[in-house]
Design a protein that fits this description.
The structure is a homodimer. Chain A is α/β, with parallel strands linked by helices. Chain A has 2 domains: 7-172, Rossmann fold; 178-296, N-(1-d-carboxylethyl)-l-norvaline Dehydrogenase, domain 2 (Orthogonal Bundle), CATH 1.10.1040. Chain A has helices at residues 21-30, 46-50, 59-64, 76-84, 89-92, 107-119, 132-138, 149-162, 174-202, 207-214, 222-232, 242-258, 264-281, 289-296; strands at 12-15, 35-38, 54-55, 68-71, 98-101, 123-126, 129-130, 141-147, 163-170. In chain A, strands 1, 2, 3, 4, 5, 6, 7, 8 and 9 form a 9-stranded mixed sheet that branches. In chain A, strand 1, helix 1 (21-30) and strand 2 form a beta-alpha-beta unit. At the A-B interface, strand 9, helix 9, helix 10, helix 11 and helix 12 of A face strand 9, helix 9, helix 10, helix 11 and helix 12 of B.
Chain lengths: 301, 301
């Protein structure tokens, strides 16, 4: 695998240089790994090109120039095109390459990509992350990895450039399933958070003193810590987009259906976030659920 | 107010010596305050009597012997009887006494008790707590206080014997409202937690490695920290009883209705916990929601 400038470096490919991928690729480059990059809109890749990355015109061309190819793009349809399309990674990957999808996507698609990779003598990992743009920038992501242990072990030094908590969760699809668990945990917690603060407001309480009382105990959560102060400041700018969260919950609900699993809280959360989007807040942060709940109850502030 | 053995001591009354009250009263006695106690079943008060507390035969008699009377009992109906009944605290309280209800109860009842107290020249506080039996034992409770500032200031040194986070939230009822916020925050978070872990199990993941990936990030919560390991160990013994949680959510939903507030997540949580109780788990801990969700989807383990 190590075919770069020194025994410690790996020729990497990077597809998707948005708010997350841009930093993740930069960390790998900072560690000395030569990178070839592709992004749907080239301008977002420019900072990496300026920092020394080679540009390629397609995922296929990225794969031709790299031994480990990472992608972090948008929706499952994008993942499918990037890996399995005519100009996709597998069209260019040589035997022995490792394909790593870090997009939050469908577990079943991860299984499909891994099978296609094996058929070409390659390995594949699904490795979605949590931690957001701040985690990407500070290399403190949690990386949830599915796929063969051998592939995990070989990519681990690269993951360590990008994340802090890196766990092999099992065979192909397990990384995506773990990310779904993560999103399910967040989904109803966001309902709790927004309903609790809305109740506090309507009950005439002082929201800051309420947070003093409740944050440190059993009601405390990372969501409350992150979004409580933003909601108090009426700051609904995106940390994590409503529309991306809807995508993730949709994947989780389809998987749950496939697993014969009734998840009423997740279903409600998805419906409420559909209301958030319908009210025009799809490009706001997930804390904009508060706005939708206010509108539902005709609360005017 | 300070009419005990020394200028620093207060004659206290304590009504309700269960898993919480027993420790809370003990802390006050340890600080040197002479106590008169009452409990519906006397045997549960015996440890405090053995430690030097005086027994009284009714809340009224407790009030006759004390300057500050605390209660922590079960349901709002119990609170009403303890404070407003024929043998209740207000029937025995002298002008200048302070009545403190630490039960999780109705905000509107707290307002009613405070008005009745004022009419007799007394002060009243509603001061429910979070932190459970462990917080009561270790004197680390969060105490959420409603009522007049003057009463709060006078009782504060006593609260400090029992709790760590003690916040005056506003006029009568504000302590109860704040506790409702606390319970609303927990309600849908418990759904998230149990749905997330059930999904993980059905997806064939290793729950321990899943917790490694998700606990430290945005999906983390105190509930996950407390109940995650118990659920993995299939330990459904009560930290907090399902039936008490149902009581609290019922109060919160009635208050929300009064406030013209639609809280779909809280309503769903209450319904799901009704299912937990209907399935025979009312005296289990709130993490038994997992069992109900398993039964709903016919998951056999």
């Amino acid at each position: 695998m190590e075919t770069g400038n020194s025994p410690q470096t790996t020729r990497i490919g990077w597809i998707g240089t948005g708010v997350m991928g841009r930093w993740m690729c930069q960390h790998l480059m900072n560690a000395g790994h030569p990178a070839t990059v592709y992004n749907r809109s080239r301008d977002k890749a420019q900072p990496l090109i300026d920092a020394g990355a080679r540009w390629a015109d397609s995922p296929k061309q990225v794969a031709e120039a790299a031994d480990v190819v990472f992608a972090i793009v948008g929706y499952p349809a994008d993942v499918r095109e990037v890996f399995l399309g005519a100009e996709g990674v597998l069209a260019g990957a040589r035997p022995g390459s490792i394909l790593v999808d870090m997009t939050t996507s469908e577990p079943s698609l991860a299984v499909e990509i891994e099978a296609a990779a094996r058929a070409k003598g390659c390995l594949a990992l699904d490795a979605p992350v949590s931690g957001g743009d701040v985690g990407a920038k500070n290399a403190t992501l949690s990386i949830m990895v599915g796929g063969q242990r051998e592939a995990f072990d070989r990519v681990l030094p690269l993951f360590q450039c990008m994340g802090k908590t890196i766990v092999h969760q099992g065979p192909a699809g397990s990384g995506q399933h773990t990310k779904m668990v993560n999103q399910i945990l967040i989904a109803s917690t966001m309902i709790s958070l927004c309903e609790g603060l809305l109740y506090a407001y309507k009950a005439g309480l002082n929201l800051e003193t309420v947070l003093q009382s409740v944050s440190g105990g059993a009601a405390g959560s990372k969501s409350l810590e992150i979004y409580g102060p933003r909601i108090l400041a009426r700051n609904f700018e995106p940390g994590f987009y409503v529309e991306h969260f809807i995508k993730d919950m949709g994947i989780a609900l389809r998987e749950a259906e496939r697993l014969n699993l009734c998840l009423p809280g997740l279903a409600l959360a998805k419906q409420l976030y559909e209301a958030v989007r319908a009210q025009g807040y799809g490009r706001k942060g997930t804390q904009a659920l508060l706005l939708a709940l206010e509108n539902i109850s005709n609360v005017r502030r």
